[in-house]
Amino acid sequence: QVQLVESGGGLVQAGGSLRLSCAASGRTLSNYAMGWFRQAPGKEREFVAAISWRTSNTDYADSVKGRFTISRDNAKNTVYLQKNSLKPEDTAVYYCAAGSVFGGRRVSEFVYWGQGTQVTVSS
């Protein structure tokens, strides 16, 4: 089992920055891909970014490429999502997830999920 706990959400003005954290515990994550997804009201959960725990390879949705950065800290077993140049359309609940294969972008490809953290970007 893997437990994931997100933190760092909040209210920010457009153009601002925010960093989300995802603290992982449980079984070793060395073979996992860690991802961030988001879900806005009335919309489906969508892929944002992912990182391979083993290789640090990254993958980003086109909508956030160049603005968001995913990273990991092995010592802290934590994954981060640095979000810059935030836009009102980035408003959503952000979820951290762990999957067994890096490269997937579908919700079904991630096995473990956090409870989510709300990010609201005001215009």
Brief account:
With 123 residues, this protein is an all-beta fold. It contains no helices and 11 strands.
How would you describe the overall organization of this protein?
It is built from no helices and eleven strands. The chain is globular and about 40 Å long. The chain is 0% helix and 54% strand. Strands 2, 4, 5, 6, 9, 10 and 11 form a seven-stranded mixed sheet that branches. The chain has a four-stranded antiparallel sheet with strand order 1-3-8-7, with no helix packed on it. It has 123 residues and is mainly β.
Count helical runs.
Answer: 0
Return residue spans where pLDDT drops below 50 for at least 5 consecutive residues: none
- Termini separation comes to 40 Å
Tell me the series of helices and strands, N- to C-terminal: EEEEEEEEEEE
What's the rounded overall pLDDT mean? 94
Q: Gyration radius, to the nearest Å?
A: 13 Å
**Backbone structural class:** mainly beta
- The backbone outline, from C-alpha atoms, is globular
Largest sheet: 7 strands, mixed
- Residues in helices, as a percent range: under 10%
Q: What portion of the residues fall into strands of 2 or more residues?
A: over 45%
Number of strands: 11
